[in-house]
């Protein structure tokens, strides 16, 4: 049985892209949790999130060039199954690693002051700690391999899917179909973030509780030591990818174009002579540079790279930014991104497609329209720089006060606090401490409502005032009232910016000859990956790491960041967003000037020559 309807193909391709983006966005939204669980820096996590772009970039141009010489739907289906396998591989570290360990007075009493305990090098870097670092490196390599396999499986998705639709759809319907395709697929990230929000509300070792009934009972999702079940959603996305890949094996290699009778000939030539790999390698540089010498194609690609970098930075670290900047739990901040920000992106893309369909925007007016919309979107980001608060007072990090026994270092010097301990507590003096031990607390009381949790740490020698006690949680963030206005403003800016997505995409498709279309799409995605999706997450992660003011350490090595300078974090993260947008607007302004000097083209037809 075969399917011979391009509308059905659009539906199936939308579902597969939905599953693919569900997977990739889910994993990106768990990165802050993976950082905490395995001691990664934001740079390492960002690199891991974009590593699939490497294998994708290596193969995408070659596969795109042979697009009309293979069974495109079948190759897409095989790629979907490979992505399903990669999702399972990505979840394997949970099953291969030891149960999650966190600092606790109830479990090991090491995060309270114990003057009788001896401090030694072996304690600070024992066998367990060394093994923990070795496991982190090994598991990172396994996750990297899974990401590379995911990149291989995702290669045929865009070039084969879009060119297949554009070949067999009626010319007037192609822009709308592609707009619908992108809009539907954007709901994949939305559901990915929402799924992550649910999964991160479940304790990471929920499958191992049977062997230890008290495991994780002390923690709650708002606790900075909390790690959610990041791995569970990967198994769900793996099943979705497998199911949505199966229909592709029933689509034909070619089908009648819309408006033609079944059995009639199409205008697409699928029987071109085969080209050897050696001949292709010789031809590739000439074809590649021929496209880059097209000013319209080149400037559009560079502008798209700027805006794709913004999307990459927001999709990878926005939930972490909201968590650190405004005190939201990782589950709640992830839910906001999925429920508010990403649907705004989908609405913008869909509205952009309808604008194209209704107004038939000319080639000359697309850059003008894009510059206007993107300038508005950029200006909407400016107030965000002022909507935040500085980091709370943290003893030994950004605040030094005198306790009962003199200087802060003296008040806990005999406590032998482990160097890597991290259990933030809030003192009765309004100062936050890295752990009860660093606050000099020698005792604690249990919570009567939950015997597995601490109610108060008492007799804290570093806390000034008469009470000398600390609460087992960080001090209250003073910027929580900014959270919803910030996410709404970011979402509104994203909606306005995404109105330009479909017009610019269709402009790029019509800027090349028909026989170069599949290859041009491959080159486009190659450059987007090399210039945007691959470096941007690592660059945003590096900006986040440079704002860290206190690192948790294991065996003397940085393990994960405990505290950020919120002002620096806000300025550098949002500064990258605005900087990329300004560069994109400038490139589109140059493009508009270039197009005004050429004849005007209708997007219903392709140009007869290269602009």
Describe this structure in words.
The chain has 2 domains: 6-256 and 283-390 and 479-596, MFS general substrate transporter like domains (Growth Hormone, Chain: A), CATH 1.20.1250.20; 408-471, no CATH class. Helices cover 56% and strands 7% of the residues. The chain is built from 20 helices and 7 strands. It has a 3-stranded antiparallel β-sheet with strand order 2-1-5, with no helix packed on it. Strands 3-4 form a two-stranded antiparallel ribbon. A two-stranded antiparallel ribbon has the order 6-7. A hairpin with a 2-residue loop joins strand 6 and strand 7 (557-564). Helix 8 (157-168) packs antiparallel against helix 18 (517-533), helix 9 packs antiparallel against helix 13 and helix 13 packs parallel to helix 16. The longest helix has 32 residues, at 295-326. The two termini are 44 Å apart. Mean pLDDT is 81; it is low at 119-123, 261-273 and 600-611.
**How much is the average pLDDT?**
81
* Percentage of residues in strands: 5-15%
- Order the strands across the largest sheet as they lie in space: 2-1-5
CATH topology (level 3) name of the largest domain: Growth Hormone, Chain: A
CATH architecture of the largest domain: Up-down Bundle
Instruction: Give me the number of helical elements.
Output: 20
User: How many domains, as an integer?
Assistant: 2
Shape: elongated
Extended strand count: 7
Assigned CATH class of the largest domain: Mainly Alpha
For the termini, the CA-CA separation is: 44 Å
**Poorly predicted runs:** 119-123, 261-273, 600-611
The topology string of helices and strands comes to HHHHHHHHHHHHHHHEEEEEHHHHEEH
